[in-house]
Amino acid sequence: MVTILGMSEIGPWSLRDSSAQSDVIMRMMARNYMSEKLAEDIDSAVKKLSDSLYEIALSHHEAMDKIVEMLLEKETIGGDEFQAILSNSLRSHRKTEFLA
Fold first, then answer.
1. Does the predicted model carry a pTM greater than 0.70?
2. Angle at CA 96, nearest 5°, toward 92 and 100?
3. I want to staple 26 with a disulfide (CB 3.0 to 4.6 A). Which of 9, 10, 16, 37 is the partner?
4. For residue 18, what is the DSSP state?
5. From CA 98, how far away is CA 100, in angstroms rounded?
6. pLDDT digit string (tens) for 62-79?
C-alpha cells in the first residue's frame, strides 16, 4: 500500500518485477536494491499508516464487532452489508458526539 499504491509521502513506485514467480523473493531482492534510508522511510510510512488505521478501528469498535459477528456467522458479507454496518455506526457515532 505504501510503495505500490502511493499511500504515503514516498509516492507510488515499485522495484519488483511483475513477471517474477515469487512475490516473497522479489520483495527480498528489492530490499537489496534500495538504500537503508529509503527502507527506513518505507518502514516508517507503513507504521504510520498502520497506527492510523488502528485508531480508526478503535474509534468504530462497535461496527468492527458487528462485522466480526456477521463474518463468524456467515463467513462472507457483501459490500452492501458492509457499508450498511459502517453507515449505521457513523450515524450513531455522530449522534454521540453531538450530544456530548
1. no
2. 170
3. 16
4. T
5. 6
6. 888 888 998 999 999 999
